[in-house]
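Title: Request for sanity check on Flavin reductase (DIM6/NTAB) family NADH-FMN oxidoreductase RutF prediction

Description:
We are preparing a figure and want to confirm that the structure record we downloaded matches what your pipeline produces today. Could someone re-run it with the sequence below and paste the raw structure tokens into this thread? We only need the token string, no images.
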Amino acid sequence: MTKHISIPLKDSYKLFNHGPVSIVTSAYGNQRNIMAASWTMPVDFSPAKVAVVIDKNTYTRELVDASGEFALQFPMRKIAKLTLDVGDISGRDTDKFARYAIKTFPAAQISAPLIEDCIGWLECKVIKQGAESMDVIIGEVVAAYADAEQFIDGRWHFSADPQKRSIHYMAGGEFYMTGEAFRTESSYSE
């Protein structure tokens, strides 16, 4: 299992501000589901909030609406196929966790499971804003974790191992992985 560290909630945006694809997990009672989601973003710092698009007609949305919570995870390249697969079939018809032998571990503050082989995890509680008819869900981040080997001193230091890098989904099964970092200095001076 990937060793993870807790991240201050105010810094949770750093886990996905580089735009990786995400995996949403949800649970209610003895039901649970997992789906891929490309449209996620941080929306506030304190309290930390995120937005995720979950179609209101999906099984995941049904579970999120019933439980009032969800988890966002940011997968490593080594589970790109799993990320694609869980986005291609409905959890109403099959237990995707069993079908794909998905390894999970318990969340600390929500009932949705967290999945292994990710670079970061966010546990979220839904904020009711009167927009329940829309596909956008706003959640308050109640716990945040990152891969301890790659998130050091408050920022990403992605592994040289390409299988451990975050991924970005394009379309038609095509992904890009996070590339090499570079620095530049601002020309702004006071």
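Thanks, this matches our download. The two ends are 47 Å apart (CA to CA).
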